[in-house]
Amino acid sequence: MQRFPDWKRVFFDSLVTLQNGTRLGPYEILAPLGAGGMGEVYRARDTRLGRSVAIKILSSEFARDVRLRRRLEREAKAISALNHPHICTLHDVGTDNGVDYLVLEHCEGKTLARRVADGALPIEQLLDYGSQIADALEKAHRHGIIHRDLKPSNIMITKSGAKVLDFGLAKERVAAAPDHSTMHQDSDEGTLVGTIQYMAPETLQGKDADARSDIFALGLILYEMLTGSPAFTASSKAGLIAAILEREPAPVSASPRDVPAVLARLIKACLAKNPDDRIQSAHDVLLQLQWMKEAERSPRLRPENRVWPVIVGVLIATAVAVAAVSAFLMLRPPRNEPAIRRLSITLPGEAPVGFTQSGGNLFAISRDGKRLAYIGPQQALYVRDLDALTVRRLAGTEKASNPFFSYDGTSLGFEADRKLKKISLTGGNPVTICEGVTVRGAVWGKDDMITFGQAMGVPMRVPAGGGAAVPLSASKFLRLPSLLSGEDEVLFTLYNEGGNPDDHDLVLLTPRDGKLRTILPSASHGQYVSTGRLIFLRARSIYSVAFDRRKMEITGTPKPILDDVAAFPPQGLAYIATTNGNLYYLPHDESADQRQLVWSDRAGRVTLVTDKLQGYGHAGGPELSPDGKQILTSICLRGECDIWRYEIERESWNRVTSDGRSCSPCWSPDGRSIAYSSNRTGPYNVFIVPTDASVGPRQITHGSTWVFPQAWSPDGKVLATFEGTAATAGDISFVALDGNRRTPYVTTDAAEESPNFSPDGRWLAYTSTQSGKTEVYVRATDGQGATWKISDDGGTSPRWRGDGKELFYMRQRVMMAAAIRTVPEFHAAKPYALFEGNFDEYFDVTRDGQRFILTTRYREPALRTQINVVEGLFARQ
């Protein structure tokens, strides 16, 4: 089976600097052991003593970095001061031919990370290793050394027990400052150093690390040894930081195994968010673990004897209480923070939350928090009273989108068929408020006025009882409104026409004069929370920031609070709602992004191109090279897209772009160049880059509208492009490459796209919505003569066979084919189905028309029967 390259292995191989047999002083390199962020470690032989050692050097690209060389020196000094059975011993330091190196004890065994990957550790083994690590930390802390990068991969499990490794980020306390504060010797001040997953909250907030920061990391390691899983996980750095700062890990007592209560309490005490509430020294942790070891091994003190756990529990509780009371009295005023609660609203399996093609929210919560409305099956509106378990469908609301509650919660507004409508929740049919609108977010104010943004028009305000809608601004790109102060100011997302998810801005609109004021750049879908904060979407994470509603300005620093939310960054949209200081959201379903790249024959028999799951084809592709030996496709992950090239025979992936903003790739007829679109210089425009990357990309178009290359003419002189803006349906144009001249080809009120040249260049197949449904058409490339409709019940993504005698297209996951004759005149036979499958609409076909390259979901997205709720979150910020 074909396999995607092992990127960890490729990356590691690229770092290896020393070959086997190389000599560094008296040490002979035998084999590489591993590589980290700045260093490489090798197994070597001490030729004088005949023993195995570990040699650590800086990677070649870092060897000239004075700061990193100082870090290597710092590690040597730190380890040399720590002679301890559970700390890796430093044997020697040296320099040879400009290579600085450390000679360390060669610890045979496997890392704790590898051991935990095999499953949770037995309690007795956990207590052994935990006490050994705590003992090593106590030794380091007594010598004024803070590790700062304690994690399972930096702990080796050997026959003699645990060994703490890698003091490369260690920090040494050197003196007392004149104000009696602690000074530290640290060349990394002002930066985050360490591994985020094992960093303490205070270090993530930019505060100085101390011994208690290592205690937090030790608590995380104990948690992981006990449960077999990390305490905090997320799919991005921002989400991981938010989890550590704001969330509590799942209680270890919830584990299916029998967890001693005293151990659970110890871990919880090590993981206190506030360092003053944490156990204060590694010595205290060591004592607790040693007591538990005695209890485990002594019949007299086993857990079934209820006296000992009570004593240990009292000791732990007392230690924690003393630390907490001391901090309470000396360092900070009393706090009265409500606990954060995480709940979920479960919906019936037969009525899950559905998705629409519009760029609007899928659910809404009434202002009093008592009712939920959402888009369900058949794109109809469903309502549930949150103190009840049943949902009800609202008749006459099919094709609904963008639901929103009235101020009093008794009615719902929504859009359907380009009409703004409302329906009473006490009964009755929907009523049309105004027509000819494309709603992108709406709010219903206390004065019974509805404010809404549009996809292809200016923001409007209209009486809920009906009447003339009044424009609020001349800008066509204001969406997702939120009321801030009565009816005087409205918060909007200013949609970036360039389409970069991070370039939307939050702006304040004053309806009385139409003036706009940016209050937060690189942010979208802002909502005001009654506790005095704004929440918003940035780079697929939800952030929170303090907001002064009187001055109408940001007063704090944004920080991430939620990472696993379903979102659509290109539209600046997150599937969230807030009311009464609570946050409601749809969780992100990672499976919706994962695709497989597959071959299919004309009978629908499927084989894998590669078994690697990725976000293939979300932004264009797959497309076969003219010689059929390579595949071009976009790969998108969490809002970022780039172009990749796959060599089929070599099973090798090559990255074409790396800006995270590229899409719509297509080959030149000779296979030597690749055209694609990127918004890295503004709106999406066309770039061309050589396939071998011998020179950088060249920008071809420089317009203010979006331009996406779709196909290259057989003579290589013209690109057929899809052009448009956020406010237009889109047209097809030709770009002549000898002067970059753009000539309109099809320009109508309908949406035309997916142009594809016939092999002889005489004909262009494309799709259009001119009939009210997307259909496939063919027209001469010179624009003269008739236009032929090929599909008969919908069609997308037309592709020609290599001899031009057959045209293929997709119709609702069915591959269709139509025989084509062009002599003496153009004629298309009735289309027929080849095969059906769970395929995306974009595909390509081999020149002989026998095989198709497609993308398919790894699995269908899970039914969205759950809306998550976070209570008390904003009161703690």
Protein architecture, described:
- With 877 residues, this protein is mostly beta strands.
- It is 15% helix and 39% strand.
- The protein contains ten helices and 64 strands.
- The strands form 16 sheets. A six-stranded antiparallel β-sheet has the order 1-2-3-4-6-5, covered by helices on one side. Strands 30, 31, 32, 33 and 34 form a five-stranded antiparallel β-sheet that branches. Strands 57, 58, 59, 60 and 61 form a five-stranded antiparallel β-sheet that branches.
- Helix 6 (211-227) runs antiparallel to helix 8 (261-270) and helix 9 (282-297) packs antiparallel against helix 10 (307-330).
- The longest helix is centred in the middle third of the chain and has 24 residues, at 307-330.
- It is globular.
Q: How are the elements arranged and paired?
A:
Layout: H1 7-15, E1 23-24, E2 27-35, E3 39-46, E4 51-58, H2 66-80, E5 90-96, E6 99-105, E7 110-111, H3 112-117, H4 123-142, E8 145-146, E9 155-158, E10 161-164, E11 171-176, E12 182-185, H5 201-204, H6 211-227, H7 237-246, H8 261-270, H9 282-297, H10 307-330, E13 341-346, E14 363-365, E15 371-375, E16 381-385, E17 392-393, E18 401-405, E19 411-416, E20 419-424, E21 431-435, E22 439-444, E23 449-454, E24 460-463, E25 470-471, E26 478-485, E27 489-494, E28 505-510, E29 515-520, E30 524-529, E31 533-538, E32 541-548, E33 553-554, E34 559-562, E35 567-568, E36 573-574, E37 576-579, E38 582-585, E39 595-601, E40 606-614, E41 623-624, E42 630-637, E43 640-647, E44 652-655, E45 662-667, E46 673-678, E47 685-690, E48 698-699, E49 706-712, E50 718-724, E51 731-736, E52 741-746, E53 752-757, E54 763-768, E55 775-780, E56 787-789, E57 796-800, E58 806-811, E59 814-821, E60 827-828, E61 832-836, E62 839-845, E63 851-857, E64 866-871
Antiparallel strand pairs: 1-2, 2-3, 3-4, 4-6, 5-6, 7-9, 8-11, 9-10, 11-12, 13-64, 14-15, 15-16, 16-17, 18-19, 19-20, 20-21, 22-23, 23-24, 24-25, 26-27, 27-28, 28-29, 30-31, 31-32, 32-33, 32-34, 35-36, 37-38, 38-64, 39-40, 39-63, 41-42, 42-43, 43-44, 45-46, 46-47, 47-48, 49-50, 50-51, 51-52, ...
